[in-house]
Every structure is written in structure tokens, then in C-alpha cells.
Design brief:
Layout (H helix, E strand, L loop, with lengths): L4 E6 L5 H15 L3 E6 L6 H5 L2 H10 L7 H6 L2 E7 L7 H8 L2 H5 L7 E8 L6 H15 L2 E2 L9 H4 L5 E4 L10 H22 L1
Parallel strand pairs: 1-2, 1-3, 3-4, 4-5, 4-6
Length: 201
């Protein structure tokens, strides 16, 4: 099968989504994909970032990370989008990138690719599922192929999210990702790379 190209494109304010994205990129490479890990630019005003120590620290630590562009989506055979929940919806920073893809959408350059998503929230019912479903509304317009993990492996009964992968931070960045989340992230990366590779073939 032809090597799949995987783009992991994410927004992270305090670091949880960043850690998830890095794990997905590593798992994608292990699955045989060529991977681009790309952060979307921060849009929040400086005073908002400064009001949260974890946000400020993460912004400073990652401000020089490679930034996502439309080309990263066009280049990829599979795209994993990551966003924290924002009132049960996609963060404006990631949505800004998506909303600039009109020219590529009009040319059909976003269709027939594999897509899935990942997210995190402070609380157990903080809108993780609605965030992923909202993200997927856009993918329908792309003509993309949504490849969620579903319950395609018993490990998903530990992770519990068939729509993508999610994590509960507990209200701070002190709730680290655990074995269940790492296993779920690895499975999702392997699954989208496998499907994308089959489509390439």
C-alpha cells in the first residue's frame, strides 16, 4: 500500500491537546505515515493569555512550533483535528483555520480524505461529544470521510468515546493523560492511517 500522509492539526491553550497531538503524530509515524504536526496560531488577546498561568506558560513554550496552513490540509491523505471544548464547540483558533479553507473547498481539494478529531474539557460532561460532532459538521461539507474509532477495539470501552478521543483535565493541567487515553490515541492514529493507505491503494 502507498504511504499515507497524516496531518495532525490542533489548537491547545494549556497543553493537554498539544500532548495528545504529539502522541498521535508519534503513533502515525509508527503506523508508517509521513506526518506533519501543526499548531494553529493563537488569536486570544495578550491580557486573556496572561490571566491564566498555564495558558501563558504553554503559549511561551510553543510559540515557535510550526504553524498550520491550508497546504497542510491539502497535502494530507488523513487529517486529525484537535481542539479543547469551548462551550461544547470548536475553539475559535482552530475554527479560524477551517474557515479560511473556502478556496480549497471550492476546488474539491478537501474531499475524499480521512478525518477524525480529538478534544479535552475540564469536566466529565463538558461538551466533548458535541465538540467532536460540531467539528464533523464541517467535514460533511468538505466531502471528507469521517473515520471515528467507534468501538472497533475493546480498549475503547475504557476510553469510552466512539466519536474520537477525549480527556478530562479536572479543571487544571494537573490531570495527565493516562494509559486509556494513550491507547485510544494510538488506536485512532493507526486506524486513520490504515484507512487512508487503503484508499491510496
Amino acid at each position: 500500500m502507498a504511504q499515507a500522509k497524516l496531518a495532525v492539526i490542533y489548537y491547545s491553550s494549556t497543553g493537554t491537546i498539544h500532548a495528545m497531538a504529539k502522541r498521535l503524530a508519534e503513533a502515525g509515524e509508527k503506523a508508517g505515515a509521513e506526518v506533519r504536526l501543526r499548531q494553529v496560531p493563537e488569536l486570544a488577546p495578550a491580557e486573556a493569555i496572561a490571566s491564566n498561568a498555564a495558558w501563558s506558560q504553554h503559549f511561551d513554550a510553543t510559540k515557535n512550533e510550526p504553524k498550520a496552513t491550508a497546504d497542510d490540509v491539502v497535502w494530507a491523505d488523513a487529517v486529525l483535528f484537535g481542539t479543547p471544548t469551548r462551550y461544547g464547540n470548536v475553539a475559535s483558533q482552530l475554527k479560524q483555520l477551517i474557515d479560511t479553507l473556502g478556496p480549497q473547498w471550492a476546488q474539491g481539494l478537501l474531499a475524499n480524505k480521512v478525518y477524525a478529531g480529538f478534544t479535552a474539557s475540564m469536566t466529565a460532561h463538558g461538551g466533548q461529544e458535541s465538540t467532536l460532532l460540531a467539528l464533523y459538521n464541517t467535514i460533511y461539507h468538505f466531502g471528507g470521510l469521517i473515520v471515528p474509532p467507534g468501538y472497533t477495539d475493546p480498549l475503547k470501552f475504557a476510553d469510552g468515546n466512539p466519536y474520537g478521543v477525549s480527556h478530562i483535565t479536572g479543571g487544571s493541567n494537573d490531570a495527565p493523560l493516562g494509559d486509556a487515553q494513550f491507547a485510544a490515541l494510538d488506536h485512532m492514529a493507526e486506524r486513520v492511517v490504515s484507512i487512508a493507505s487503503k484508499l491510496n491503494a
